[in-house]
Amino acid sequence: MNTAPMSTARGLLAAALAATAFLGGCAAGPDPADHATIGTYTEPPLPANASPVHTDAPLPSGTEPECGDPTASLRPTGSGRAARGPNIDAIRARGRLLVGLDTGSNLFSFRDPVSGAIVGFDADIAREIARDLLGSPDLIEFRSLASADREKALQERTVDVVAKTMTITCERRKKVAFSTVYLRADHRVLAMKNSGITGITDLAGKRVCVVSGTTSLDRVRREQPAATILTVPTWADCLVVLQQRQVDAVSTDDAILAGLAGQDPYTELVGDSISAEPYGIGIPKDADDLVRFVNGTLERLRTDGTWTRLYQQWLASLGPTPDPPAPTYED
Ligand code: GLU
Q: Could you tell me which SMART domains the record lists for this protein (predicted)?
């Protein structure tokens, strides 16, 4: 008897259809028959909700909207227990900080294999906010978010903050607010070792995995319009399709790619920085008290050594520890 729940069955069907469409749509890319040289095989299904980006889909507009320096944020007024404001008070009344993040992002927010707790750079930054706001890093509730759902979760206030490798952009600032920059990432490329791929220029005619609803998707489409793009819901999905050779590369922030490379020694980061990706904590628009509060916590982390300790704990594979990013304040 088939006991698979309907949603699973539907997911598999959708994945199978997407697989057919994507693999069939590769005629413009490398010849899938290349694989035949390594023997007969059955193509594994793509992850649920995987979707090819059709090459005739309109490219994202060439110019991003202007908003001055998008990384400028509100000056902290202190992050101690004395800080007050409508949003701060509401979180204290609830007694828990609701944090939206990815629960499968190695290095940033993922399950500790032994304890099962969500750990990583983003998870720990969120815990520090809870520590200052509520007196304990454990008064926190993590809510799993796909990249494409970050702005919506803040607009609908299903979370208090988003701590998910979120690049600060003028486009996003129309919908949500951001803290000061807490990590500077760079957009790069991940490929299989010895693939011959050395950067974004080599992705012309190749298949590239990118997550939908990200700055990475727009960037790859603009910088390498000759790539065949597959979008999936999470970066972990991208690692799977790379491992299954359903794509030739993954392209996003080096910090995220380092987490994928750490899970597969046959992959490597290649090429120079394609763009700077400054990360901020996402906060609902107009929650100025919370923005100032979070900026106070980030100020503490930069000066008391916590930021450096967290970087060394989680992100050492990115190279030597840099100085914490200097904040820019708009008032
Ligand atoms: N930094 C990119 C963005 O904010 C990708 C990060 C992610 O998908 O989590 O869109």
A: PBPb
